[in-house]
């Protein structure tokens, strides 16, 4: 799954600031929680949060932004 790929990139890719790393780990936890809970309201905001992370990381970390973009598309396809 794309979340596993994102975790691997976080651990093996170029270093991120502690704040960026924590934000992305928190985002992964939120995605996993939302998938489990399947709450429509939370799911809509989840896609927004993923999209904002893609925008933030787009220039500096295109690898992470690409993986998060794929996750966003997958969530949208699952109607999350």
Short description:
The protein has 80 residues and is mostly helical. It has a domain at 53-80. 81% of the residues lie in helices and 0% in strands.
Structural features, described:
It is globular and about 30 Å long. The protein has a domain of 28 residues. The mean pLDDT is 84. The chain contains 4 helices and no strands. Helix 1 runs antiparallel to helix 4 and helix 3 runs antiparallel to helix 4. With 80 residues, it is mainly alpha-helical. The longest helix is centred in the middle third of the chain and has 20 residues. Helix content is 81%, strand content 0%. It starts with a helix and ends with a helix.
Largest sheet: none
How much is the average pLDDT? 84
Q: Could you name the ranges where pLDDT drops below 50 across 5 or more consecutive residues? A: none
Number of helices: 4
Structural class: mainly alpha
Rg computed from alpha carbons, rounded to a whole number of angstroms: 12 Å
- Portion in beta strands: under 5%
User: How many beta-strand segments?
Assistant: 0
Q: Report how far apart the termini are.
A: 16 Å
In N-to-C order, the SSE pattern is: HHHH
Shape: globular
Helix content: over 70%
